[in-house]
Every structure is written in C-alpha cells, then in structure tokens.
C-alpha cells in the first residue's frame, strides 16, 4: 500500500504541465535521435544530457527518462525500414521486421514494435514500482564488502559478456578506471593522473566523457568510412498503422513471452538487452517451426513482437536496478547514473529515503512516457522514417557542432572542449578495433565507488582481505560471477569453433 500511495504522489508531480512537457520532449527527441543509424538510445541520452543541465533535477531526469524509452523505439524503426538497426538491442527484431516491410507490411511491423515496446515497458515499470523499494530495503543491509562485490560483478560480467574478446573487455575496463580516478582522491587528498592541469583536479565530468566517447566518437567513425547515400534502401510505409484483431491475437503471446525474458535480465549486468532479445527471437522461431505453416523467414509478426517486448522490459527493470542498487546494467544505464551524480544524487538504497519525491515522480513519468510514445509512434512512425533521408554528412556534422556547443555551454571551459576532442578520438580508435564502450562507461561511474568500498572494508578489517568474502551474500555474488564468466568463455569458444568450420 505504501508503494501505491507513493506512486500516486509521484503521478501528482509528474502530471504537472511542465513535467508532461519534459516527458513529451524527451520522447520526441529520443525517438528522433534513436532512429538515426549508429546513434541509438545510449547516444540519445548522452547527446541530450548537456541540454538537461539547465533544468531542475526532477524535470531533467523526467526528460531523460522519456529520451531513454524513445531512443529504444527509434532503434527499431531503422532496423525495420532500412535493415540497419540503430542499436544492437534491435538486431533480433530486424530479421522478421524488415521482411514484413519488404512484403508491404511495414506499417504493421512498426505497430507490432510500438505495442511490444509498450507492453514490455509497462510490465517492467510496474515491477519496478512495486519491487524496487523492496530491493532498496534489502540493499540497505549491504555493507562495503557487498557493494564491492556487486561492482566487481558488474565490471567482470560486462567485460566478458559484451566483448567478443575478454582481453578487449578488460582493456576497456582499465581505460574507464583510469579516467574515473583522475583528480583529487577524496580520502587522502592525493592528486592523481592530472598531468599538472589544474582544471582536472575535480576529475573529468561525466557529461564530457559520455558525449565524447559516444557522440563524437561515432561521428569520427562514420566520417572515416565510405560515403553513404541516405534513403536509397528505405522502404515506403503504406497501409494501416495498427493491427487487426487476428494480428493482435497472433502477437500477444509473443509480447508476453518476450517480457518474461526481458524482466529478469534488466538486473543482470550483461551490458544491454541483446541476450534477452535473441532468446525471445529464438523461442518464437522454435515455436513457429512446430506450426503447420511456419512464417519465420517470410515476415513473422511474432519475430518482431517477442524481441521488442524483451528489449523494453530489460530497459524497464534496468532502471529499477539503477535506482534501488545503484548498479548500471548497460551503457545507457551508466549514462543515466552519471546524470544522477551530475545533480548530486547517489542512487542506491538510500535514494528512496533521501529523495523519495524525485524517485516516485521519475517512476510515474516512465508510465506517462510509455503512453506518450505509443500515441506518437503508432500513427507517426512513417514521419520519423523521413529523418533517414537526411544526408549523413550534414547530419553528423550537425551532431558534432551540437555536442561541442552543449559541452561548452554546460561549464564554459575550453579545457572541456579539448577533453571532448581527445575522448572522441579515443572512442573512434576503440570502434575501429572493436573495443566495447559499455565497460568504459561502467568503470568510469562505478570505479570510484568500488575503490571507496574496498578501502573502507580493508580499513575496518585492519587490512585483512578475507573480509571481502566474509558474508553469505558476498560468497553468493562471487559464485554467480564465476558461473557467468565460465558460461561466457564457453560461448566464445563455441563461436570461434563454428566460425572456423
């Protein structure tokens, strides 16, 4: 009952005219950025983060929540109409979605995607609304040893699962650690890795890091490749932007199954929603093979419904893990955690007690954002598709200018612009060598937290490292970590063997 009362108070705040405006703008801008190839939801949040710094914390985080969900749907529009998913989480839905589009059913594919995203997001957000406070209460019993174990789990699991090479994943972690600990050590006052630059004493701002690595790095990566003519493979959207009763009945079980895959994966730090979306796709394909007239390979509506619901369900519960545990389980969640820190909030079990009004308004805005996105995207998905016709050279030049202006406007520092360029070059090099970005962002955010909890644990135990595995919770977390690493290594070996055959 407390959750219902708190959620009602959250709706009271989120339904104010100004906050509804921020949700609407966030959904529109998130979809617009997400629909552009190569950008995606994490890029949308990173690129628009400087804009929100001029808002009050509640309005800024509500707007970013709209961007968060809007970017996910934009990813799928690109995949369905252009066969070029905007983000890796949209790959699974692209297989059958683009076949539907080529078969003249692009509108139905987009409608299936929109309703699937709404269904998965709605159920997951409901789980967050009623489950996150319980997780926060549980996490309040955690000590520094347990939080250190959680951060280690996030680091190692992300490095091994996201990257094709464990070595590249660990290298990305080292880069993130190095950037994250720059500045003055808060415990000892020691200056670290500043290279004698006074402006780096406070460290590198999370806004500069995310925009540089994600936005500017992508711009440089696109500029280094051959020219691309926009619109030459874009499928025209015709027909009704809704589903018939028979199509709805066909898609409904897949939406529910996809949501069931996505909800638990949102709290597992595997770097995003790629795993549950492919699990949902594989399940629907196996079920379809048992039917008298299999549809997979010819534009199966269930092949779009399952992955779309799984992707948004994962995003929804990832927000719960972020709020209740302070644990970012994807690159987008890491950027959002940086946004919380930018406004002076520390996510985790104490967030509900210290900033309950903001948290419940944010959760309520997630429900509102889902409705706004459904209203926007069912009839207007073809309009978003027209953004794909913008020549890429103009589009990415505009993104570079916007990124630079946003960073300079947020702090008025030329040093930040230099750092933006250096981080953009770093992001470009990492893309060229297939080094994943998610471990970098997670290490930047969680690195200082891991260091603080490690040092606190060792201080309390007078230097005894056994304290790190002194409780059942820490032993359980490390055991899960070992299992996750073994499974990831086995999967990598199998992929390499199949590639050699």
UniProtKB/TrEMBL annotation:
It comes from the Bacteria. Pfam families: TctA (PF01970). Keywords: Membrane, Transmembrane, Transmembrane helix. The chain crosses the membrane at residues 20-39, 107-135, 147-163, 170-191, 203-223, 358-382, 394-423, 470-491. Residues 20-441 form the DUF112 domain. InterPro entries: DUF112_TM. PANTHER family: TRICARBOXYLIC TRANSPORT PROTEIN. This is Tripartite tricarboxylate transporter permease.
């Amino acid at each position: 009952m407390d959750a219902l009362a708190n959620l009602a108070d959250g709706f009271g705040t989120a339904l104010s005219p100004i906050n509804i405006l921020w949700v609407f703008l966030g959904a529109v801008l998130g979809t617009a950025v997400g629909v552009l190839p190569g950008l995606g939801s994490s890029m949308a949040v990173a690129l628009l983060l400087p804009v929100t710094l001029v808002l009050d914390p509640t309005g800024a985080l509500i707007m970013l929540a709209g961007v968060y969900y809007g970017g996910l749907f934009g990813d799928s529009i690109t995949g369905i109409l252009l066969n070029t998913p905007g983000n890796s989480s949209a790959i699974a839905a692209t297989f059958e979605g683009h076949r539907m589009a080529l078969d003249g059913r692009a509108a139905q594919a987009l409608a299936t995607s929109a309703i699937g995203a709404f269904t998965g997001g709605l159920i997951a957000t409901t789980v967050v609304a009623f489950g996150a406070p319980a997780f926060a209460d549980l996490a309040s019993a955690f000590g520094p040893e347990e939080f250190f174990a959680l951060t280690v789990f996030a680091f190692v699991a992300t490095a091994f699962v996201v990257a094709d090479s464990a070595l590249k994943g660990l290298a990305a972690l080292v880069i993130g650690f190095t950037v994250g600990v720059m500045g003055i050590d808060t415990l000892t006052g020691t200056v670290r890795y500043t290279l004698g630059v006074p402006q780096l004493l406070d460290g590198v701002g999370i806004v500069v890091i995310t925009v540089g690595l994600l936005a500017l790095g992508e711009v440089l990566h696109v500029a280094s490749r051959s020219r691309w003519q926009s619109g030459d493979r874009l499928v025209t959207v015709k027909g009704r932007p809704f589903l018939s009763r028979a199509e709805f009945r066909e898609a409904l079980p897949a939406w529910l199954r996809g949501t069931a895959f996505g909800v638990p994966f949102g709290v597992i730090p595997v770097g995003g929603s790629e795993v549950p979306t492919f699990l949902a796709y594989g399940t629907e394909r196996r079920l379809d093979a048992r039917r008298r007239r299999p549809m997979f390979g010819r534009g199966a509506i269930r092949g779009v419904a399952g992955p779309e619901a799984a992707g948004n369900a994962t995003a929804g519960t990832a927000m719960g893990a972020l709020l209740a545990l302070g644990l970012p389980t994807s690159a987008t969640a890491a950027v959002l955690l940086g946004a919380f820190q930018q406004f002076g909030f520390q996510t985790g079990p104490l967030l509900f007690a210290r900033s309950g009004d903001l948290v419940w308004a944010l959760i309520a805005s997630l429900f509102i954002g889902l409705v706004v996105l459904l209203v926007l995207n069912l009839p207007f998905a073809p309009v978003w598709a027209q953004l794909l016709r913008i020549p890429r050279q103009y589009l990415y030049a505009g993104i570079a200018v916007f990124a630079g202006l946003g960073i300079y406007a947020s702090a008025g520092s030329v040093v930040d612009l230099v750092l933006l360029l250096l981080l953009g070059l770093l992001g470009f090099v990492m893309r060229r060598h297939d080094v994943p970005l998610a471990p970098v962002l997670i290490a930047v955010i969680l690195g200082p937290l891991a260091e603080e909890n490690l040092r606190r644990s060792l201080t309390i135990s007078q230097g005894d490292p056994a304290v790190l595995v002194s409780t059942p919770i820490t032993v359980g977390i490390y055991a899960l970590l070992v299992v996750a690493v073994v499974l990831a290594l086995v999967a990598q070996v199998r992929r390499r063997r199949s590639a050699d055959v």
